[in-house]
Write a structure and sequence with these properties.
It is built from eight helices and 18 strands. It is of the alpha/beta class. The protein has two domains: about 280 residues, Zn peptidases (Aminopeptidase); about 90 residues, no CATH class. The strands form three sheets. Strands 1, 2, 12, 13, 14, 15, 16, 17 and 18 form a nine-stranded mixed sheet that branches. Strands 5-10-9-8-7 form a five-stranded mixed sheet, with no helix packed on it.
Length: about 375
């Protein structure tokens, strides 16, 4: 019977040998578009992204995980920047996202003042509670709280000399109950539907900073969603003996909020999950992949390497231990066996305005698909 299962799966994999790369690029283009505004907290960006994923799940024929709806709603607090984002230093007007970013926990204000140097990179206008920090590279994030100061990270190359005078006009809006949702679908197994392989990725990114600047998030994590959707499309057309489930998490960038919520309110028993594979930032691959939790599951990691050695899919598979750096974490903490996979090499854009679809190579997209497909066949039987 075991041999029969393996032969059946090998025949099924022949129907669709690899990721549909043109489709993946189309997904990345859509998710990074101005219309979705960084899949964040202003201009309904995250809501629009969620609706797009729901429509893709429906088109493939995935079932809602809870049998009723694809969305698992939840809410949380977040600090947002929907409007004015004006900063001038030493009389020079600066460009949001390119020359400066506002610290995500900042209070909005309109003020003009003088800056006092505190150390080699920190300058303060204590009267207006403004802090300026010089940086070699600008990377933004998301905050679930609002502080009583305004912080600016300023690219060193954006001005000549030390920052001495500053004028700001920044609008923030602290949202106590921002409503969003995880997107959850499943392809029921033909023989063992209560045994589940779970594929996950987060669909949110940083959203917009002001009314003119947004963060596209091509590699982080439009690439992961495109990869997940390709797998969903494949497994919907090729059901396996065990169930294959898919979750696109919201609010990963705000602190793994969506995945934490799911593990506390699971739509399927966590003990039914035989293995979880989380993908985040998989748009490159020239230097192979890294597998977080590889040291926690040595047999599965060894088998992954064996498959790769036989098929020569990727140049290298790097091992990494436990890390709370993506949506696998809270599942692993509750005893769900899990890998978190990300690619290495290529572009270095991260949490900035340069993480765009045009420069995302998707170098090892197809080979990573083949590797996971072949590994799952061997690992599950």
């Amino acid at each position: 019977m075991k041999i029969y299962f393996i032969l059946s799966l090998m025949l099924l994999t022949g129907h669709l040998a690899a990721q549909d790369l043109p489709y993946a690029k189309k997904v990345v283009d859509t998710l990074t578009s101005k219309t979705l505004w960084g899949r964040g907290y202003t201009n309904n960006g995250m809501i629009k992204a969620a609706d797009f994923i729901v429509n893709e799940f429906k088109a493939y024929g995935l079932n809602p995980m809870n049998g009723k709806a694809y969305k698992q709603p939840f809410s949380f607090s977040v600090n947002t920047f929907p409007g004015k984002m004006e900063v001038a230093v030493n009389g020079k007007s600066l460009i949001p996202g390119k020359d400066f970013i506002v610290l995500p926990e900042s209070l909005g204000q309109s003020s003009t003042g003088k800056l006092e140097q505190k150390d080699s990179i920190t300058f303060i206008d204590s009267a207006q509670r403004v802090v300026v920090v010089l940086k070699d590279k600008l990377t933004w994030s998301v905050a679930q709280l609002q502080e009583n100061y305004t912080g600016i990270e300023l690219l060193k190359m954006a001005i000549s000399g030390k920052p001495e005078q500053i004028s700001i006009n920044i609008q923030n809006s602290f949202v106590q109950n921002f409503e969003t949702a995880n997107i959850c679908g499943i392809v029921k197994g033909t023989r063992n539907p209560d045994s589940v392989i779970l594929i996950t990725a987060h669909y949110d990114h940083l959203g917009g900073m002001g009314s003119d600047t947004y963060f596209p998030g091509a590699n982080d994590n439009a690439s992961g969603i495109a990869f997940l959707l390709g797998l969903a499309k494949y497994y919907a057309a090729n059901p396996q003996p065990y169930s294959i489930a898919f979750i696109c998490f919201a609010a990963e960038e705000a602190g793994l909020v969506g995945s934490k919520y799911f593990t506390e309110n699971p739509l399927l028993p966590l003990k039914a999950i035989r293995f979880l594979v989380n993908v985040d930032m998989v748009g490159t691959g020239e230097k192979g992949i890294t597998v977080v939790n590889a040291t926690e599951h040595p047999k599965e990691f060894a088998l992954l390497n064996k498959v790769n050695d036989e098929k020569k899919y990727l140049s290298k598979i790097n091992s990494r231990g436990k890390a709370a750096n993506s949506d696998h974490y809270f599942f692993a903490e509750k005893g769900v066996p899990a890998f978190f996979i990300y690619t290495q090499g290529g572009i270095d854009a991260y949490h900035d305005v340069n993480d765009i679809a045009k420069t995302l190579p998707l170098t090892e997209f197809e080979d990573l698909f083949r590797l996971l497909r072949d590994w799952l066949v061997k690992a599950m039987f």
